[in-house]
Amino acid sequence: MIVLGVLGAAFAAVLSAGPANVIPPASEVIYRHEIYRDADVTGYMLDIPPGRGTQMHRHDKDILTIFISGGRTTAVFEGFGATSDALPAGTVRYRTAGFAHSTRNDDRQPFRAVILEFDASQGARTEGAAAPQLFCTKGFCVNDATLQPGSTLAGERRSLFIAVENLAVREVSGVRRSQPAGTVWTGPNGWTNDGRKPARVISIAFR
């Protein structure tokens, strides 16, 4: 409660100080660090310790968030009060650019999420066609798949992958590697779960 009060007071101070551009950008969030980059997307790991929270910050680009750990959070969005949320691991959320918020971890375990930040506008969210497709934008579609041991991810399109659980990958070429939960990589579909347990992966197929 004390942390939330501090975040709310800081936000109120920002609002009274002048225009919204005095709110710092997301690049200044101390609990995130870059884990992936290509010509179009930058990936970050957000890792908030128990009971801690980010400062109020603004997002100037569209973002896709994949919650790796799951957990309970309290968020304060610009112009709104505090909102508490329970997020199962593997939850995916998309927001277009132009908002500011803070996030507090209400659990006793670290809160981890992968944030994908797009250089170009991806447009509004639309409903997906059918499972495992969750939703689409004009720029990409999001798929949520759980692969049984020995199962292969269908399709030939090159995608961006985020491991929700620890995953052992065997590429079509035969190359094997581990992808710990929260890692981001790119490549064609068609790889196989080479582990002994089912593994969940979020894939971003660009259109």
Textual characterization of the structure:
The structure is a single chain. 8% of the residues lie in helices and 47% in strands. It is mainly β and 207 residues long. The strands form four sheets. The chain has a six-stranded antiparallel sheet with strand order 10-11-12-18-13-16, with no helix packed on it. The longest helix has 16 residues, at 2-17. Residues 1-20 have low confidence and may be disordered.
What is the CATH architecture descriptor of the largest domain? Sandwich
CATH C-level name of the largest domain: Mainly Beta
The proportion of strand residues reads over 45%
Major sheet: arrangement of strands: 10-11-12-18-13-16
CATH superfamily of the largest domain: Jelly Rolls
| Rounded mean pLDDT score | 90
CATH topology of the largest domain: Jelly Rolls
Overall, the morphology is globular
Compressed to H and E, one letter per element, the order equals: HEEEEEEEEEEEEEEEEEE
Helix residue percentage = under 10%
Tell me the number of helical segments per DSSP (H or I, 4 or more residues long): 1
Query: How many domains?
Result: 2
Structural class: mainly beta
Q: What is the makeup of the main sheet?
A: 6 strands, antiparallel
Q: How many β-strand stretches?
A: 18
- Rg, rounded, reads 18 Å
pLDDT < 50 stretches: 1-20
Taking the alpha carbons of the first and last residues, their distance comes to 43 Å
